[in-house]
Design brief:
heterotrimer, A alpha+beta (96), B alpha+beta (210), C alpha+beta (643), B: 210 residues, alpha+beta, Alpha-Beta Plaits, two-stranded antiparallel ribbon, 8 helices, 35% helix, C: 643 residues, Aldehyde Ferredoxin Oxidoreductase,  A, domain 1, Aldehyde Ferredoxin Oxidoreductase Protein, subunit A, domain 2, Aldehyde Ferredoxin Oxidoreductase Protein, subunit A, domain 3, six-stranded mixed β-sheet, 29 helices, 12% strand, globular
Chain lengths: 96, 210, 643
């Protein structure tokens, strides 16, 4: 299925674009989407998303069709993505 | 001196001239940020404490958002040495380095008035002239600059820096060229005063430094 | 003079502006190692010297300046200074923190703290030149903007390398939203109206020259900690966007949660695209700048190249953008110009932004009309209205005189229910993002000791911990659940307040040490490296627990000050709007409110974690004694303000 992905910095810098279309298997989860990104863009992408222990950095949040899914919430990565879903990875910089 | 087509043959000859240089930024985020870490790490290296007055490199705030570090140019014909009445400033025989003999210096400040770059400094505690000595070849300022804008440059490296800086001046002054400089971010974001200053100091070096 | 050991200058300077008396005293080493510096020194001194009988504009109010303990050294990003006084906006403890050079210059002049008391009958400035201290006539400076005053001082005193603190026309007129500016507009002690206190003392500026060393004991330990710090910030994902965008980056955070606080804190979504960080970066910024000694490079100066405000060059940070949206304004050049006039006139952009938004809502609801505004329309979204009313506030002209009192006092004067539109906590205007949907954030605004403030704690910790970390550090996995969690949140808040206070003792920047993408990196920077730097510079062996306790101590002193002023649990509250009105306008938090029940439960757990009485919010004796504050416990007991 096709999934529209919006990226904010620094992910968009690494990917070279802020809008991507990804083809994933049906009923793919956010976890699979993240793994696909890392597979495609390599260690710079991995360094943004994962800490040195290999855990996904929890302060990332994903918008799934404008609904927010903070990745530090239990089960977040197992969220299923549907065809034509819009997924945004938004910058985990808190402050101000 | 063996003449070669590319000039690479003389890389075996020991380069005499090494000075600290402000490198031309290759992108807009690699300009001097104004953090002044260089000043305090210089003072730590030489005086064992933190005191910007004891730094031999100075960051000059030109206007809001524009800061330029000024470093000793280790002139080949130093104005500081010529001005010193005590013959306390000498040129190192082998290295291109100008040093102050603190035992002979009386703190008269003639050198401070003479340096065309205004980078001769004065230690308020010892009451002596102090200057950059390139830290035995590993300058603390170069090592600790977070923006990596300081370079210990040999002859050719410093010539390349000066050439690119002068090119930026020309590009900035040529208004038709500016329209074609969309990709040259460093020229767009370098305000006029920064390139003007680069031009001034290049001029000074031609006149006074050699 | 012999080289100093350690990062302390060794003396405390006190100047009485009524009598002209100057006094300097040795800094007691045990005072130094107990209160560390910055907020620790100042809050203790304020408690000791300013009882409830003294009002903020009374000459007996103190105005205290304390550079952080590590300011003056090359510790990365250790360049913060604290200013403290009884606040004219909260009538309780007030403080502000600023970047700039002045604090390091004070240390180089030989002082760790400057205490100002009394008031001059006519405008003066203070000139501290190493050991020489002079009170000088400021008639020629009075009326000048902040930048003009700073420049005039450098010329008059014949030294471009001095440090300066100045007030602008707003401070001169005791505008309660006035700040104190360091080294031109390099930094601002913005919040709690300290500029008005300085103005009430007729003190236009403090100029300082210092040539002495700031020392260091263990250079090797310092270098090692430095390398370790650089290593952490090279991998912490928090840092690269900070360098790239400056504080503009927080726009993405507000978008993420839909918490802009737009239109006087009614809308969670807003047309923010014209203020996208990319716009500021590509169209207006001069370069990525640094505060002294900082490798993160997240401060910004901006230039407007063309258009109505062409030629404006000024410093601008996130809260200006945020509070412009609170006024409904999303024109980037209007926002930059708004920052410019706040900077030049010496105003707290946050307090002004919220006060103007309050005025705009009053105007919308006809509680303020063209009669009061003398024909100036105060409409949400109008940058020119925002700019003009700000100017009138600075000069106390027309309705500006009313608004110069801050939104709460203005609301009380207007009456007719205007108070519900004054978005303030303990009198001080709202900061940061909307708390609806995120109960810890809501409580954090309420418990700050200086009124609404996200910098008093790190309410974002709940966004970056894992459930396991929540369990390990705060007793419950729920602590990591941003929207639904309850247990552990109070403990998280108490810990994060103590944690962040460390930065204010040492003079460390929040963005460099107290914000991060992971909890591990956060503690590595803000506790471990902070403590290692302090010990390296001073040859001490403070443990991390002792450093956290020093943070807890300073926080409790401020709490005691407020308790003594009569504030208890009833003042630890946020505006009714957040409880009663659902967040409007769309966005991810659309429809959210702050659930009062949850708010109270988190506050209960917070008081318990703090060792304070849950019902009254007042401190228990044994908590104060554990922190070495027995005398404060006695004082509060005498006044019936112990929990």
């Amino acid at each position: 299925m096709e999934v529209r992905l919006k990226l904010f910095p620094p992910l968009s810098d690494t990917a070279g674009s802020s809008e991507l279309k990804l083809v994933l298997q049906d009923r793919a989860t956010l976890r699979i989407l993240v793994e696909t990104l890392v597979a495609r863009y390599g260690s710079p992408m991995k360094q943004h998303l994962f800490d040195t222990e290999g855990r996904i950095i929890p302060s990332w949040a994903v918008f799934l069709n404008q609904r927010i899914v903070p990745l530090n919430q239990p089960g977040a990565l197992e969220t299923v993505i549907h065809p034509q879903d819009e997924v945004s990875f938004i910058l985990n910089i808190a402050g101000g | 001196m063996p003449k070669t087509k590319t000039g690479l043959g003389d890389s075996k000859r020991k380069e005499k001239r090494r000075i600290l240089y402000l490198s031309l930024p290759d992108h807009a985020d690699r300009v001097c940020s104004g953090c002044e870490t260089c000043q305090l790490m210089c003072s730590l290296e030489h005086a064992g404490s933190f005191n910007p007055k004891k730094a031999r490199i100075k960051v000059v705030p030109l206007s809001l958002g524009i800061t330029i570090p000024i470093t000793c140019q280790q002139c080949e014909d130093p104005a500081c040495r010529k001005a010193c009445p005590e013959k306390a400033i000498v040129q190192h025989k082998k290295l291109n380095l100008v040093v102050v003999d603190e035992k002979k210096c009386t703190g008269c400040m003639a050198c401070i008035g003479a340096c065309p770059f205004g980078i001769m400094a004065y230690d308020p505690e010892k009451k002596r002239a102090i200057k950059c000595d390139l830290c035995d070849g590993k300058p603390a300022c170069v090592q600790y600059c977070p923006s990596k804008v300081l370079v210990l440059a040999g002859n050719r490296e410093s010539a390349e820096i000066r050439r690119r800086r002068f090119a930026a001046v020309l590009a900035n002054e040529d208004s038709s060229a500016r329209h074609n400089m969309a990709g040259a971010e460093q020229v767009k974001t370098l305000p006029r005063t920064m390139t003007q200053l680069a031009a001034e100091s290049s001029k000074l070096q031609l006149e006074g430094g050699r | 003079m012999a080289r100093k050991k350690g990062s302390y200058a060794g003396k405390i300077l006190r100047v009485d502006l009524s009598s002209g008396r100057v006094e300097n005293r040795e800094l007691d080493p045990s005072f130094a190692h107990t209160y560390i510096g910055g907020r620790g020194f100042a809050s203790r001194t304020l408690y000791n010297e300013v009882p409830p009988e003294v009002s903020p504009f009374d000459p007996a109010n103190r105005l205290i300046f304390t550079p952080g303990a590590l300011f003056g050294t090359a510790v990365p990003a250790a360049s913060r200074t604290t200013a403290t006084a009884k606040s004219p906006i909260t009538e309780m403890h007030g403080d502000g923190h600023s970047s700039g050079y002045w604090g390091a210059v004070l240390k180089a002049a030989g002082y760790d703290m400057l205490i100002l008391q009394g008031a001059s009958p006519k405008p003066i400035y203070l000139w501290i030149d190493n050991d020489r201290v002079e009170i000088r006539d400021a008639a020629a400076l009075w009326g000048k903007t902040t930048m003009e005053t700073d420049q005039a001082l450098r010329e008059t005193l014949g030294d471009r390398e001095i440090g300066t603190l100045v007030i602008g026309p707003a401070g001169e007129r005791k505008v309660r939203l006035a700040g104190i500016f360091s080294d031109g507009i390099m930094g601002t002690f913005a919040r709690t109206g300290l500029g008005a206190v300085m103005g009430s003392k007729n003190l236009k500026a403090v100029a300082t020259r210092g040539t002495k060393d700031v020392g260091i004991v263990d250079v090797e330990a310092f270098r090692k900690a430095y390398q370790d710090y650089l290593q952490v910030i090279s991998v912490d994902p928090y840092v690269a966007p900070a360098t790239k965008y400056g504080t503009c980056r927080f726009m993405y955070h507000r978008v993420k949660f839909g918490i802009h606080g737009a239109k006087n804190w009614r809308l969670g979504d807003f047309d923010w695209k014209p203020l996208d960080p990319e716009v500021f970066r590509s169209d207006y910024q001069i370069k990525a700048s640094s505060c002294p000694m900082c490798p993160v490079r997240c401060r910004r100066e901006y230039r407007i190249p063309s258009g109505k405000y062409a030629g404006t060059v000024t410093k601008l940070e996130w809260e200006t953008i945020a509070r412009s949206m609170t006024c409904g304004v999303n024109d980037p050049e209007g926002v930059i110009y708004f920052s410019h006039i706040c900077n030049q006139y010496g105003l707290d952009v946050e307090g002004v932004g919220d006060t103007v938004a309050f005025a705009m809502e009053c105007y919308e609801k006809s509680l303020l009309t063209d009669k009061e505004t003398e024909g100036l329309p105060l409409r949400f979204g109008d940058p020119e209205g925002l700019i003009e009313i700000t100017r009138r506030i600075a000069f106390r002209e027309g309705v500006g005189d009313l608004l110069a009192e801050g939104s709460l006092r203005a609301a009380r004067a207007i009456g007719k229910g205007a108070e519900q539109f004054a978005m303030q906590v303990k009198g001080s205007e709202m900061s940061a993002g909307d708390p609806r949907g995120m109960p810890v954030r809501a409580v954090s605004y309420a418990t700050s000791t200086r009124g609404s403030d996200h910098l008093r704690s790190n309410p974002y910790v709940e966004e970056l911990i894992t459930p396991e970390e929540g369990l390990q550090h705060f007793g419950s996995r729920e602590a990591a659940d941003i929207f639904q969690g309850l247990k552990g949140k109070g403990r998280l808040l108490a810990w994060s307040e103590n944690f962040v206070t460390i930065g204010d003792l040492l003079g460390l920047c929040k963005f460099a040490y107290y914000r991060s993408a992971t909890f591990d990196y956060l503690r590595k920077k803000g506790v471990e490296l902070a403590t290692r730097f302090y010990n390296a510079c001073n040859g001490t062996k403070l443990s991390e627990e002792e450093m956290l306790q020093a943070g807890e101590r300073a926080f409790n002193i401020e709490k005691a000050f407020n308790a003594r002023e009569g504030a208890g649990r009833e003042k630890d509250l946020i505006p009714e709007r957040f409880f009663k009105e659902a967040l409007a306008g769309g966005g991810p938090s659309y429809g959210a409110v702050v659930d009062r029940g949850k708010f109270d439960l988190i506050l209960d757990e917070y008081y318990e974690a703090r060792g304070w009485n849950e019902r009254t919010g007042l401190q228990k004796r044994k908590t104060l004694e554990k922190l070495g504050l027995k005398d404060i416990a006695e004082d509060l007991a005498k006044r019936g303000r112990l929990g």
